[in-house]
């Protein structure tokens, strides 16, 4: 995958994520950014989301937490893109989340495996980790 195209896709993804989390766009638009199955790894464990309903439930849980924190946006601190082959790339980013008043909610580092399939580019693996 072209690394410039991957960076542009992630810029759009961050906009969709923030808008869906705020309630400004349908969550379905956010779900379209993810492949099913999706592998999700965090310090708490590993989830393999095999259906769109499972994906929707997990994402809605995350959105509910963000809304309770009065989430407004996610900013990119740093990013690194590595093209693996014609149909996949790794995107590693460090992000900062802000609330409606501009206060920092927290920082998170995430590595994504982005695949370019029949439905276009989608996240197939999301691994949350320390900086």
Automatic annotation (TrEMBL):
<feature type="domain" description="DUF6841">
    <location>
        <begin position="5"/>
        <end position="129"/>
    </location>
</feature>
<dbReference type="Pfam" id="PF20795">
    <property type="entry name" value="DUF6841"/>
</dbReference>
<dbReference type="InterPro" id="IPR049219">
    <property type="entry name" value="DUF6841"/>
</dbReference>
<protein>
    <recommendedName>
        <fullName>DUF6841 domain-containing protein</fullName>
    </recommendedName>
</protein>
């Amino acid at each position: 995958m072209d690394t410039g195209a991957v960076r542009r896709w992630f810029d759009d993804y961050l906009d969709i994520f923030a808008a869906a989390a705020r309630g400004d766009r349908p969550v379905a638009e956010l779900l379209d950014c993810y492949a099913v199955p999706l592998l999700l790894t965090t310090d708490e464990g590993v989830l393999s989301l095999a259906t769109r309903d499972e994906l929707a439930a997990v994402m809605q849980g995350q959105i509910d937490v963000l809304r309770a924190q009065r989430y407004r946006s996610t900013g990119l601190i740093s990013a690194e893109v590595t093209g693996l082959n014609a149909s996949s790339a790794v995107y590693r980013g460090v992000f900062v989340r802000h609330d409606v008043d501009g206060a920092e909610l927290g920082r998170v580092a995430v590595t994504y495996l982005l695949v370019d399939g029949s439905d276009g580019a989608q996240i197939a693996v999301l691994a949350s980790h320390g900086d």
